[in-house]
Amino acid sequence: MVKFIDSELMQLRDEVDRMWSLVHKQMEQARQAVLTLDRTLAQQIVVRERRVDAFELKIDSDVEDFIALYNPVAVDLRFVLAMLKINGDLERIGDYADGIARFVGDVEGDSLDTQLLDALRLGEMFDTVLGMLSGLQQALIEEDSLKATTAIESDDRLDRISAASKGILTDYARNHPEAIPLCLAFGGVFRKLERTGDHLTNIAEEIVFYIDAKVLKHAEKLGVPAGKSSAGEQ
Fold first, then answer.
1. What is the model's pTM?
2. Which has the closest alpha carbon to 94: 133, 120, 125?
């Protein structure tokens, strides 16, 4: 029975990992679509959003079934709850990628002002989000809480870039009245990326939540008091 439960948990982890890779691809292509105003690519993102939603529903259902069938406790319960919450955060990030793609479809013209893009540091903001997504996915695979907490620090950069964008867009709209609708819509892109950072911070916390429980269980098996490691015993 224990081996079967472990197999079910591994399958759940694999599903979340596939969901994660899909969401990462969505956001990566959203970056490209915005910076190049590639409407064809933006439409592909919108179409794939259905796959993200389907993944989210499947994982939710699998978690519910696992809890109902096995009534997990301790570290197994923490794991499935972490996967459930991470799944929800990934689905929201997929929604933001979809929203950014729709912005591309609504923009008039064939290109954006490159000087405006440079001032806004939009590429850097996307790169930070993508780096957090990759780093946290690896942190879960390797069960590395340090990598997870390191990713949280990047959220401050997203907040700073987003805050600065408001003044930049306001000044640009003042000097280019015809671009006021564009600036308002652009503000929505920055809000979505900032909120993505918040959801990634939630994911980092869930990873640490699970790993800490696993480390504590391992320490208890070895007879190590809480807060100490076996390597630290003299």
1. 0.89
2. 133
